[in-house]
Amino acid sequence: VKMAAGQQWFAPAYHLILEVFGDSTVLFFYRPPSHRIIVNGKECINFASFNFLGLLDSERVKLKALSSLKKYGVGTCGPRGFYGTFDVHLELEERLAKFMRTEEAIIYSYGFATIASAIPAYSKRGDIVFVDEAACFSIQKGLQASRSFVKYFKHNDMEDLERLLKEQEIEDQKNPRKAKVIRRFIVVEGLYINTADLCPLPELVKLKYKYKVRIFLEESMSFGVLGEHGRGVTEHFGVNIDDIDLISANMENALASIGGFCCGRSFVIDHQRLSGQGYCFSASLPPMLASAAIEALNIMEEDPGVFRVLRDKCKHVHKALQGTPGLKVAGEPLAPALHLQLENSTGSRTNDLKLLRAIVDYSLERRIALTLARYLDKEERFLPPPSIRVVVTVEQTQEEIEKAAQCIREAAVKILK
């Protein structure tokens, strides 16, 4: 192919880009996890990767990232507070704040570090944090780093949470002077990654005002999924976003990028710029990934109908998996990442995992890519039961969903007989 300097040739099916720089032609090759994925040499339908809105396959996002790569280079080589702040970082923070309808937003270069940095930025030794037992591992690490006094309540059990809040209220009355300097937080997920359940946010807000506590809401699984415009669980329930003290989410599930963000009132967010360790001491997000996230936001705002499509697909998958012999579906019909668990455990976690792994392998042979939910068994505070995670995206067709459900049923009948 004859090409002039500065000219591009783009092959979207293969994720190839040829570009001429002077006398040299450079070949870029990249293949992110997409709707169809190559596993052991086989092209499979992807039911394993978190790509809810299918934006990893968006040519607009890819070309925007490439354009940014040519302009800024690969990385910033420094944290935000030194020389790692570029104009696209400020633009992304402004866009996220506007999208979420909050005063301000802050971005982190690693999704896991976002809530793990935000919690210890506010909650210190002597403070009290009330946490759902099903909280994800990044929340657990944030609690550990905070050295606060942690009280776990049963998953989504508001009566158990109120019991703990009442106990703390009685304890505070014994020493009002000490109680004045103790900060109290409730930390929950909007849509739990370990259970695929929604948090009862309206009830949590009532308890917040009744017992004067702050709410931190982790929305990595619900941002870009729930609500008419994808703003998450607050929009889904019609809760005023100002009732939530801090919202965090990663940009790796819906925004086809890397990193995470927190948003809320300006005085809350500004505190993290000096106290959020993942913000202060990590190199900032590569500009090309910030540009990719901005373009993903553009697409989300231009086509809010995509969220309804995703919800319909989630309901379809949830219904299609019902009645699978020997397996039960754990999670809400609106959840984009469901769990398939054994109806009857063997009594051994190792043996349960072997059975589920056999179902995953059987499906893979038939070009359906699934994955087991992974945990650090010795590190988890409350270890979830073994499960196969089934991830829904807008790109999956009705035929592909039915094929995957049928394949899982066949595997269950054969392996769990």
Automatic annotation (TrEMBL):
Keywords: Acyltransferase, Lipid metabolism, Pyridoxal phosphate, Sphingolipid metabolism, Transferase. It comes from the Eukaryota. Gene3D superfamilies: Aspartate Aminotransferase, domain 1 (3.90.1150.10), Type I PLP-dependent aspartate aminotransferase-like (Major domain) (3.40.640.10). One of its GO terms (biological process) is sphingosine biosynthetic process. Its EC number is 2.3.1.50. Residues 43-406 form the Aminotransferase class I/classII large domain. PANTHER family: CLASS II AMINOTRANSFERASE/8-AMINO-7-OXONONANOATE SYNTHASE, SERINE PALMITOYLTRANSFERASE 1. Component of the serine palmitoyltransferase multisubunit enzyme (SPT) that catalyzes the initial and rate-limiting step in sphingolipid biosynthesis by condensing L-serine and activated acyl-CoA (most commonly palmitoyl-CoA) to form long-chain bases. The SPT complex is also composed of SPTLC2 or SPTLC3 and SPTSSA or SPTSSB. Within this complex, the heterodimer with SPTLC2 or SPTLC3 forms the catalytic core. The composition of the serine palmitoyltransferase (SPT) complex determines the substrate preference. This is Serine palmitoyltransferase 1. It comes from Sinocyclocheilus rhinocerous.
